[in-house]
Design brief:
alpha+beta, four-stranded antiparallel β-sheet, 2 helices, 4 strands, 33% helix, 21% strand
Length: 78
C-alpha cells in the first residue's frame, strides 16, 4: 500500500529550508538547501510513519490547512 502526505517546504532567511508534514503531528525537519531538505523529509517521514503505525494513531487529513496559513512563500509538495 502506498501513502501520500503533503509536505510544506519553507525557505528561511539564511537559505535553509524547514519542512513540515501537516497530516502527522510533530513531523518536521530542516535542510541546508532544497536537495538536503527533500532527503531529510524522506527520512523523517519514514521514521514518523513507523511511529504512527506502532502507536495506532489516526493520521488527520490536511483539509483547508493551506488556506489557513499565512501568505509566506512556500513550496507545497505531495
Amino acid at each position: 500500500m502506498k501513502y501520500v502526505y503533503p509536505a510544506i517546504f519553507t525557505e528561511e532567511k539564511k537559505g535553509d529550508y524547514s519542512i513540515e508534514f501537516p497530516d502527522i503531528d510533530g513531523c518536521f525537519t530542516c535542510g541546508t538547501d532544497l536537495a538536503d531538505g527533500i532527503a531529510m523529509a524522506a527520512d523523517v517521514l519514514i521514521i514518523m510513519q513507523n511511529s504512527v503505525s506502532e502507536l495506532h494513531r489516526v493520521v488527520k487529513t490536511v483539509g483547508d490547512y493551506i488556506q489557513k496559513k499565512d501568505r509566506q512563500p512556500r513550496l507545497y509538495c505531495l
